[in-house]
Design goal:
By secondary structure, the protein is an alpha+beta fold. It is 22% helix and 33% strand. It is built from eleven helices and 34 strands. The strands form nine sheets. Strands 22, 23, 24, 26, 30, 31, 33 and 34 form an eight-stranded mixed β-sheet that branches. The chain has a six-stranded mixed β-sheet with strand order 1-2-3-4-28-27. Helix 4 runs antiparallel to helix 8 and helix 7 runs antiparallel to helix 8. It starts with a strand and ends with a strand.
Length: 581
Amino acid sequence: MPYEQLGITTPHPVLSWANHSLGSDETKMAKNVASLPFVFKHVALMPDVHLGKGALVGSVIATKDAIIPAAVGVDLGCFVGETLIPLVDGKYYPIKELVDKNEEFIIYACTPTGKVVAAKATAKLTRKNAPLVKVILDNNEEIICTPDHQFMLRDGNYKEAQFLEAGTSLMPFYSQIDKDGYTLISQPYSGRWQKAHWMIARSGLLGEINELDNRPENIELIDYLINYNHKVVAVIPLNYTENVYCLAVPEYHNFALKAGVFVHNCGMSAIKTQFTGEQLEGKLKKIRLDIEAAIPTGFNENKDVEKAVTNWQRWRDFSNLHRGVQDLEGKAMKQMGSLGGGNHFIEVCLDTENQVWLMLHSGSRNIGNKLAQCHINTAKELAKMANNKLPDPDLAHFVVGTPEFKAYWEDLQWAQNYALFNRDVMMSRFKKIVEKHLNGGKVTKPLLEVNCHHNYAEKEVHFGENVYVTRKGAVRAQTEDYGIIPGSMGAKSFIVKGKGNAHSFCSCSHGAGRLMSRSKAKNVYTLDDLIEQTQGVECRKDTGVLDEIPAAYKPIEQVMANQSDLVEIVATLKQVLCVKG
């Protein structure tokens, strides 16, 4: 469906894909945003648009030189096409060539403990005409990427390219060929050289390995050490733009560059499993009860903190977060690996070919909410001091280049990294539970994995200009972007691929969108209604989740029809099990 321009008088137009009239409160909220002086071009409303805080949920707002902290987000950085990527075959490939091949390949990644491993990856075009910087290293290598791409530091943390300083130590990647023709990789955690085919054989990614390349004498560590770091010499802004590309590495979320460093990859979460619907028969209730026992929901938290959580490298940065959250580190640790409430969920789904998918939707929990509130309060105080006449106090903003903007942006990255790892921890538990019931506990490899953010701000180029794009309850849908659009519990969900529609700032909806508030849903519908509308779905059927009844949401089929010019459908999923907070 093409968009329509709303018939309201504002300095910037409002384009809507909703295919229905907005309510008076929704119209007022749209007008408030479209009246802000730093809004670029227009405001875009997705098919699932509904009331939010300050701005409509399901709105896409491009801005110049300012950002509204009511949005939660992260940047997805990328590299120019000639950037060389080392593969496990011992060769280097330009990242654009990997995109053009359109197939899975195996790269080198780094674990949280500093161990280099082999991992599967895919490559894709991520942005067109993106702004760029040049990162110069002390080994005379130069990396051209977007300012927001995250580089892995020597301690395992990440920092955006634009914030790297001269002398910053990065996680090093070293490879060489020995006298027998074997590829050697230096292990950062130990400094020892290791034969690459040994780590590949141990990974199991390539299946059977030729015995001549996997003899015992060929899988020993080479007995000498290397203790180098790669350090940053300079970061230089460039005065031109290019199309940029990135890898998706589902298991480790980072990859090595030929230049000798590791960088973060692009990242709701869904995986297509090797299981079929027949294997679920008679097991759904047991699976649901195990999920609810293993993953806390609502305001609950884990009783014990597992090792993977305590080892998360970003805890080292907690002391740098806003002073208003410094007493929450313990709570944040215990909530890592928990679902939350509201529209967050864990689902087992079947696609049209009866293949089992695992899907979950969660965020940065209490710590993310508290961080956002701290910065929103700061923005409001600044607006009051400057006597800014805002149409809504929740539209208070930070100006690029100020200390407040920098502090907010860095906290934003931390919170989104927390959210990403939180989903990883839950998905790992979720997958193990399903494998226990369907595969005797044996580990399986996903057939496909999709990750996307539903709320974030990103620096992009649109209509030839550099802008900040805030997707509040929306998904990026650039050409070839994969995304997830869930329906309500009991309805369909969709795996999609973006069409890169410029008028929507390359965006699409993040779900069905609410038709009514939670309190109204509880007053309008009964427990019998919930039971009827969730027939065939293994889920809680009590008044505690009545506000999530399917009828409280827009029909997902109509929402998808309204954005046929924004995305194409790759897979249609139907929930058979749903866990709500």
